[in-house]
Specification:
Elements (H helix, E strand, L loop, with lengths): L4 E2 L6 H16 L7 E5 L24 E9 L5 E8 L8 E12 L7 E3 L10 E3 L1 H8 L2 H10 L3 E2 L7 E2 L4 E5 L4 E7 L2 E3 L2 E3 L2 H15 L1
Antiparallel strand pairs: 1-5, 2-3, 3-4, 4-5, 5-11, 6-7, 6-10, 8-9, 10-11, 12-13
Helix pairs in contact: 3-4
């Protein structure tokens, strides 16, 4: 399956949920599939106690949300993922994968909230917000390049049929450590498609190093 797209008998939230768990298992080299829970499309998109924010009512995606797939796992480190599953005439009465939102607890203190700014031609993106947090994060050019890669904002099958979503990549303080929130989109790969989980967790580790 080259695209995260489900038709016919595969157009089933249970199939989508199992496929997302399978892709996560492969990307992260997990010994077993993480638990994946289907949540209704008209819900908040998160269970009680989640670190993820409630779903946005206007996602910027070109089709309605049919449901969400929510993953909360401890391996290879604690993180949560919410994947929106789209449907409707715009994608030919099939299921397609929409926004992916990650929440990754950080093990080091965060001085204050910082968010990755917009891309600008000719120069890399930079973190903005708390001066000390931004200074430490912006000191590492490889961290910034990875943050740019993670925070994809454009999707679509080709250059003619594309849509753009707002960038969201923030580092926030918590009573214990901090929290990385990242919104991204799935990517096509030679063998199918990727959820970008490995890149998100690599970025979290790099952020922890920068803030240590």
């Amino acid at each position: 399956m080259a695209l995260a797209h489900w038709t016919g008998r595969s157009r089933d939230p249970a199939v989508v949920s199992a496929d997302i768990a399978r892709v996560l298992t492969t990307e992260l080299g997990l010994p077993g599939s993480p638990p994946a829970q289907v949540l209704a499309g008209d819900s908040e998109g998160v269970p009680a106690g989640s670190l993820l924010p409630p779903r946005e009512r206007f996602s910027g995606m070109p089709a309605p949300t049919h449901c969400f797939v929510y993953v909360d796992t401890q391996a290879p480190r604690p993180f949560e993922l919410r994947a929106s599953v789209l449907t409707g005439r715009a994608i030919r009465r099939s299921f397609g994968l929409g926004l992916l939102q990650y929440a990754v607890p950080l093990t080091v203190p965060v001085p204050g909230s910082a968010a990755l700014g917009e891309r600008h031609p000719g120069r890399p993106s930079a973190f903005e917000g708390d001066p000390e947090a931004a200074r430490r994060l912006n000191f590492d050019p490889e961290l910034l390049a990875l943050a740019d890669q993670v925070s994809a904002t454009v999707a679509g099958p080709d250059s003619t049929h594309q849509w753009k979503v707002a960038r969201l990549l923030t580092v926030e303080p918590r009573p214990q450590g901090g929290l990385l929130l990242a919104r991204t989109l799935h990517r096509q790969t030679p063998g199918g498609w990727s959820l970008g989980a490995k890149e998100v967790l690599t970025l979290a580790a790099r952020i922890e190093t920068a803030l240590t």
